[in-house]
Amino acid sequence: xxxxxxxxxxxxxxxxxxxxxxxxxxxxxxxxxxxxxxxxxxxxxxxxxxxxxxxxxxxxxxxxxxxxxxxxxxxxxxxxxxxxxxxxxxxxxxxxxxxxxxxxxxxxxxxxxxxxxxxxxxxxxxxxxxxxxxxxxxxxxxxxxxxxxxxxxxxxxxxxxxxxxxxxxxxxxxxxxxxxxxxxxxxxxxxxxxxxxxxxxxxxxxxxxxxxxxxxxxxxxxxxxxxxxxxxxxxxxxxxxxxxxxxxxxxxxxxxxxxxxxxxxxxxxxxxxxxxxxxxxxxxxxxxxxxxxxxxxxxx
Length: 300
Hints:
The protein is mainly alpha-helical. It contains twelve helices and eight strands.
């Protein structure tokens, strides 16, 4: 096993402090660490080997840098994951028990939904199901905080799980929703937002489907070989949506929510139950999906 150098340790410390990083940020961090330590900056393959060296040294301590896919824009991200400790339990040090209960209920609704998202209005209504009372203002503040810490993403009033959640809570999600989750047929990672075959359990992230079916005039499902029932997505517009635009949309929606609540209207809403680092960096190993029948519900 190759030992880590000062550049490796600097890279590891940075990714620990910054949390989830996209591929561009990882490449920039690698270049910065190499420059600071007067080490030659290699190509993409060298970066892949650089991360593999770190993983081989930290894996005995149940730590690993893992790759995740942003389900919204399809971009690769990387984060440090503790393999021994459940990440959902570590969140308890940052959030109260009541806030954690709301977050789990939010996850539960997202996983059970057909589109992998939940409206912010529905999240506000979930506060009525908590063991301890939480105001709507407190729930909005929680959503703001979780977005700032990259646990969720909000856009046009819809909330989805961010890539950080999908990477760091991968174990929790797979164990809690073993019979509900499907993995993307291409990247083999959890797929909440995407297209599913009408005839079998084959499912794609939109970005993965666009890549897989590119240039195929008669796209067929790789699982059952029947005609693919969905239009092939064009992710160009989705990937070019600027973060500033998404942030502005979120801010406008949050202000609208507050205005509605000040008028007492939200209480009438019914309750709602790429610049890529090389693939040499190890992905999370997919687990075999259970063949048991899908549960009708899942407790949070």
